[in-house]
Amino acid sequence: MPETEHEPLSDFIREKVxxxxxxxxxxGRVVTRFPPEPNGYLxxxxxxxxxxxxxxxxxxxxxxxxxxxxxxxxxxxxxYVDSIIEDVHWLGFDWGEHLYYASDYFEQMYEGALKLIRDxxxxxxxxxxxAFKEYRGVPTRPGKASPGRSRSIEENLDLFQRMRGGExxxxxxVLRARLDMESPNLHMRDPALYxxxxxxxxxxxxxxxxxxxxxxAHGFEDSIERVTHSLCTLEFEVHRPLYDWLLNALEVYRxxxxxxxxxxxxxxxxxKRKMLELVEGGYVSGWDDPRLPTLCxxxxxxxxxxxxRRFCRGVGITKVESLTDITLLEHxxxxxLNRTAPRVMGVLDPLKVVIENYxxxxxxxxxAVNNPEDASAGTRQIPFSRELYIERxxxxxxxxxxxxxxxxxxxxxxxxxxxxxxxDVVKDADGTIREVRCSYDPATRGGDxxxxxxxxxxxxxxxxxxxxxxxxxxxxxLFSTERPEDVEADGDFKDSLNPDSLKIVRAKxxxxxxxxxxxxxxxxxxxxxxxxxxxxxxxxxxxFNQIVPLRDSWGKQAQ
Length: 559
Ligand code: ATP
Ligand code: MG
Prior knowledge:
By secondary structure, the chain is α/β, with parallel strands linked by helices. Among the domains are: about 15-105 and about 215-330, 3-Layer(aba) Sandwich (Rossmann fold), CATH 3.40.50; about 105-215, Glutamyl-tRNA Synthetase, domain 3 (Alpha-Beta Complex), CATH 3.90.800.10. It is about 25% helix and about 25% strand. It has 13 helices and 25 strands. A 7-stranded mixed beta sheet has the order 10-23-24-25-21-22-11. It has a 7-stranded mixed beta sheet with strand order 19-16-17-18-12-15-20, with no helix packed on it. A 4-stranded antiparallel beta sheet has the order 4-5-6-7. Strand 17 (about 420-425) and strand 18 form a beta hairpin. Helix 7 (about 215-225) packs across helix 8. The longest helix has 16 residues, at about 45-60. The protein is elongated and about 100 Å long. Mean pLDDT is about 95; it is low at about 550-559. It binds adenosine-5'-triphosphate and magnesium ion (MG). Adenosine-5'-triphosphate (ATP) binds near residues 46, 262 and 271.
């Protein structure tokens, strides 16, 4: 399993699990679960929960269940179930035989609800949703009892059975816990346990028109599966008293719920509902749009599962809400790809260069290093000829002394090739630079100076005649603000979408790039890391997604 290759982790949850093992609280068992609701695709926030749930099980020779919390048929779909299975596997975790669906427990849950009614711990309430809220009141003042609270056991049983039978419309009745209408915790003021929903369920079909709420279902599911440590995010802390009360009232096995802070990432959103809005509104191309923080989006962008796991380890587990800088995620993939990704040369914004003293028909093969961090990656041959492309930004007609790249009269090194000196500039009628003329020094073949002459700049290039052309997608932050989810009451998070989050350019690239297959990652020297898109690439016509730019300052450029 993936995490064992690393140092052991420590945090307050792991300490608690260790303590429970020491005291024999659950007879030495460690059972966790990852319980997604199949109403959207998994995102990087879920990855944090997955690494924790599966990580703790694995570290303690326990098991982690993958359980679909599919109790709300209205928003759920098998498309989401399938994607979740794929994404958890891709992230490197396996639940073995422990794949569960909350919907498989519907009958058991219904029996549990009957028990609560018989024990006078639940009743049927006829308040409309608005009246329900009004009666519940506010934390500082006690709520008002529903008329249903005084209904007899027989009447409650009869109504509940008829609710199941399909006699009533949605919203007519709900089953509520008989708890405490004066509790300062609103979740304890007779919360709803069952709602009528005449909706088709992706697994149980039309067998039910009555569905349990999260509060009723979740603890029940944990109990049935004999989970030991039920780990969830902080927003469920206020639900914990209810979790405990219900399992007590049902007189069943009781796991323990522990909460941790969710992951929030800057310049993006971390909610399935908001992502769905972006997908449905066409603001992104789909759940796997490489700009989204979904696992399928990150995968398509070129992120590796290992880099995401390392990121989750780096973030750690605490009880304090915080905002994690997206550059931390980028750091982990850069660090990995620096070691593993082959270097290639691609020019994103081509400017023609003609080497005037280079023979017209000559093409020579020059040796280029595939990865300076990994000698075993070897070298390759790249063609060089009289006409080349360089990056438009690597030439300036009016260059100051800090500009170390190509400028009139200045000499630079073409990586792995020769020293060249700019001799002339050719412009179009409107003043746009059409091409740059240079002379080269044949004695500098390979990029080495024979006489100790130094040049400050080294730039990348491709030979024009042999260059391929590919589409490259350059990405910027999806949102222009750090916390797009913090909007005014009447505001819309979509207002801070970055209009320039995607730019597509036609790049001139060395032949090796054109031959790359979908999923291949590489570094375009001096530009960044790129991944051959798995969806839109065709043989001979690959499309590249920018994973992350290098943003190396010029002065730090090697060689
Ligand atoms: P969303 O807010 O995106 O809709 P959710 O919490 O409703 O997410 P679930 O399918 O219920 O989605 O989540 C499954 C598990 O993942 C839960 O245990 C939840 O606590 C955890 N989780 C969800 N979002 C995050 C996050 N940002 N950071 C850490 N854990 C998360
Ligand atoms: Mg949820």
